[in-house]
Amino acid sequence: MPEEVMSNQEASRLSCMWSFGLILMQFVVLTGSAHGASCAGAGLAQAPLWVWPLIAGCCLFAFGTELAVLTSAPSWQFKFSYTIPSTVMNIFDVCTDALAAGVMLASYNCEDCRLEAAWKQVAAKSALRVNIPLWSIALFAWLATLPQFLIPLFTDSHNSFVDLDLLGFETIASLPEKTSDANSTQERFMFKFFLRLLAENAFQIHVQITIAGLSIALTGWTSAVYMMLVSIGTSSVMLLFKLCQLAPDVFAVFEMNKRDRFGKIVFFNGLLAAFVVVAYALAKILALFVCPQHLLNYNGCAEFDV
Fold first, then answer.
1. Which residue, 13, 51, 191, 221, shows the most beta carbons closer than 10 Å to its own?
2. Which of 205, 202, 216, 206 is nearest to 118 (CA)?
């Protein structure tokens, strides 16, 4: 290839292919784990083992996709090959989130499961006393991740590399950085901040920690809980990684809107909310190992009858 590693049209085709593929992959993992999981008493159901090779295959395919693009332009290989692991982690994170949602749906249908009963006690003592079934919250948390995969299919972006970044293909998305303009930077920041950081990771991680904590309190450290901890750990790493990635764009977007007082207020409030959500998520992870019943509420460790 010449100086242009990949054209916008090629990037658009690739983003549409992976957008459809990731939606299909998540649907297969979620429905497969929801129907194929085996009940495990009062806590989380056990996910079927066949989903793990499927997830591994999807991650390897993502790795091969980016590697194929890089090998077509040798001069770019050294500069960007180090970011490939983050793409594999992004795909793994997305797949394990779907797996966690499917396991929660399967648990709800188990006769001996007491997650919902324990959740009602915790919710009644929380700052926001919600009366929403835990399975529906888990399903909504997964649905909140879908917009980032639907955008490349239903929008005609002037920069398809932004769509690839939204899908988690950060190596390919970094290729045209020399020609990126202010609009692309702002578009990438907004998508990545609200859809990937908040909707995909921050919301998901809170729901998964709650489910894991309830299950540990009910049945102890089962293999189903360790599966959930894998998803929580992956989401936590990617959440912190995305915060670091967004740091340069934060200053760039601030400079673009520094004359807009209302825009600056919204911008800073959004950042503050994100850091509060992240800090609370990390505190809840610590509570899994510190609190007697493994859950944190707004006024300290949560208490409920098991």
1. 51
2. 216
pTM: 0.81
CB distance 267 to 260 below 8 Å: no
Task: Count the neighbouring beta carbons within 10 Å of the beta carbon of residue 250.
Answer: 14
Give the per-residue pLDDT at 2. 44
CA distance 142 to 199: 9
Q: Convert the pLDDT of each residue in 186-240 to its tens digit.
A: 666 766 676 667 766 777 888 888 888 888 888 888 888 888 888 888 888 877 7
Three-state DSSP at 292 gives coil
Q: What angle do CA 229, 286, 189 make, to 5 degrees?
A: 75
CB atoms within 10 A of CB 108: 18
Q: What is the maximum alpha-carbon separation in the chain?
A: 66
Cβ-contact 23, 150 below 8 angstroms: yes
Contact call for residues 115 and 218 (beta carbons, < 8 A): yes
Distance from CA of residue 145 to its chain's centroid?
A: 7
The pair of three-digit structure tokens given for residue 61, joined into one six-digit string: 């395919």
- Residue 301 near residue 291, CB atoms below 8 Å: yes
Interval 29-39 mean pLDDT: 86
- Measured from the Cβ of residue 182, the count of other Cβ atoms closer than 10 Å reads 11
Domain boundaries, the chain: 8-301
Cβ 18 vs Cβ 169: under 8 Å: yes
Instruction: Judge whether 93 and 125 are in contact, CB under 8 Å.
Output: no
Secondary structure letter of residue 138 according to DSSP:
H
Half-sphere exposure for 11 (CA within 13 Å, toward CB): 25
For residue 88 the two structure tokens come to 């594999």
For residue 38, the 8-state DSSP code is: B
